[in-house]
Amino acid sequence: xxxxIDFEIIIIDDGSPxxxxxxxxxxxxxxxxxxxxxxxxxxxxxxGTAYIHGMKYATGNFIVIMDADLSxxxxxxPEFIRKQKEGNYDIVSGTRYKGNGGVYGWDLKRxxxxxxxxxxxxxxxxxxxxxxxxxxxxxxxxxxxKLMEKCVSKGYVFQMEMIVRARQxxxxxxxxxxxxxDRVYGESKLGGNEIVSFLKGLLTLFATT
Length: 209
Known about the structure:
- The relative contact order is 0.16.
- Helix 4 (108-125) runs parallel beside helix 7 and helix 6 (157-168) runs parallel beside helix 7.
- The protein has 7 helices and 8 strands, in the order βαβαβαββαβααββα.
- The model has no long low-confidence stretch (mean pLDDT 86).
- With 209 residues, it is of the alpha/beta class.
- The strands form 3 sheets. Strands 3-6-4-7 form a 4-stranded mixed beta sheet. A two-stranded parallel sheet has the order 1-2.
- Its main location: endoplasmic reticulum.
- Its cofactor is Mg(2+); Mn(2+); Ca(2+).
């Protein structure tokens, strides 16, 4: 509020049973409906459609996408904005694998899966970014719209395809090291099916880009 940057926070909730909507409604009362926009959906319809749903209500020139479970700390947002201005980037991506970035709260298995997925992607796709599977990013609104029209993946592969398609279309990408903290409540959705889906998606991108 004291940065001089005009902003709005759009909260997309897909019928989650954890009280997200009730908290968002309280925030809306405190900060006003011009700053906090709660845009719920009746059921879980997927990450990609949540992006499209949120974009319909976004009035700014830039969109920051982040998880609302506190694994993405808002303290990094000013750094994203500074980085974008510094290089006039189309996308600024938070990276856990560069500079002083890191992951906290994951067990060894989860770290190995994430590192392995990222390494495979780097070798096969050479995307020009160090963290392909993270979702904490800043986009120019029109760039995000164009990428959403091109991307077809779902689940774990979706974030990776966004960066690969961005490179393919000639958009510029900057990076900001971030600390990712695993959620305190709830469980990770990453399981065997997601890993198989990721590998299929990776090979599809390799074959089509």
